[in-house]
Amino acid sequence: MNAAGTIGRAVASALREAEVAEVLVIDDGSSDDTRGAALHADDGSGRLRIIQQVNSGPSAAINVGHDSTTAAYVCVLDADDFFVEGRFARLFAEAAPGWDMVADRLLLAKEGAEDGPYEEWGGIIPNDGLLSFAQFVTGNITDRSRPRTELGYLQPVFHRAFIDAHGLRYDEGVRLGEDYLFYGGALARGAVFRVIPAHGYVAVSRADSLSHTHRSSDLKALLDADARLATTPGLGVADRKALARHATDVRRKWVYHLALDAKAEGAFPRAIPTLLVNPDALWIAIVRTARAVLARNRLAGSSAFVGGASVGPILGAG
């Protein structure tokens, strides 16, 4: 990924933390000067290491990081994001003992406004700060009235002994929801996941991120991964119900995007058999399409009116 414009801030925020023993930058086949920008942020402490590889995708890059460090605790920092100063001191001080993964809450920033103001992430965390498997999976079902609140957005610190003991690694065949699957896999194997009230991670939203531009194939890969997660031994009734609900949510999105992709490729009849055997998803596709058409019609009508009015620029700025 090309990250020359953001990697310096990310690296500097990690090196600023006294608790951080090593910062690994996995340069996943970038074509810009990501490496140079990362080196420019080095503080001379000897903690920064850069690994360059042929582009293999985010999950493969994270796995290389896991396999290349011997630190007792590991966490992921996206190249677009950065840590709030003092994050790790707060995590280690405020989390009750006995955790395998611990996270804090997010601050949400928009691209171009990385210095704020920030929006506080609105994911729902239990009062005791402990997330069960069923709570975590349920918390990753999209709520259109509360966007960007899925629990998979959290960026926990992992006790390395736990992930190594269970052979946990990111699914390299999945490009969407890979964090959700990794965290879910840990919880399914008995991980203790704590979340503290502090805000320690700034997540920067970009219009071209995969979460905004994914295709039907990405959703199908996530749907198949959900099915594999469901085969984990020891899951209880509540766990399986939560997984079934999540899979239904993903399946509906998959069918909807399948229709969109087929339409964009001029091959809409290809999607019809899948739509017909998924009537709930078909209805959602019809409703969303109708809303989009109505919105475009309203916009076209208002543009024609406002464009001829002296207050047009003021309304447009709003």
Account of the protein in words:
- The chain has 318 residues and is α+β, with helices and mostly antiparallel strands.
- It has 2 domains: 7-213, Spore Coat Polysaccharide Biosynthesis Protein SpsA, Chain A, CATH 3.90.550.10; 217-301, no CATH class.
- It has helices spanning 7-15, 34-40, 58-68, 87-94, 133-138, 160-165, 178-188, 210-213, 216-229, 237-264, 272-276, 279-307, 312-317, and strands at 23-28, 48-53, 73-74, 82-83, 101-110, 119-120, 130-131, 157-159, 193-205.
- Helix 7 (178-188) runs parallel beside helix 9, helix 9 (216-229) packs antiparallel against helix 10 (237-264) and helix 10 crosses helix 12 (279-307).
- It starts with 6 loop residues before the first helix and ends with a helix.
Briefly say what this structure is.
It is built from 13 helices and nine strands.
Relevant terms:
318 residues; alpha+beta; Spore Coat Polysaccharide Biosynthesis Protein SpsA, Chain A; two-stranded parallel sheet; 13 helices
* CATH hierarchy, class of the largest domain: Alpha Beta
Number of domains: 2
What's the number of helices?
13
| Fraction in helix | 40-55%
CATH topology of the largest domain: the name is Spore Coat Polysaccharide Biosynthesis Protein SpsA, Chain A
Report, as a whole number of angstroms, the end-to-end distance: 34 Å
Using only CA atoms, what is the Rg?
A: 22 Å
- Give, in order, the helices and strands: HEHEHEEHEEEHEHHEHHHHHH
What is the secondary structure topology, with strand pairs?
Blueprint: H1 7-15, E1 23-28, H2 34-40, E2 48-53, H3 58-68, E3 73-74, E4 82-83, H4 87-94, E5 101-110, E6 119-120, E7 130-131, H5 133-138, E8 157-159, H6 160-165, H7 178-188, E9 193-205, H8 210-213, H9 216-229, H10 237-264, H11 272-276, H12 279-307, H13 312-317
Parallel strand pairs: 1-2, 5-9
Antiparallel strand pairs: 3-8, 4-9, 5-6, 5-8, 7-9
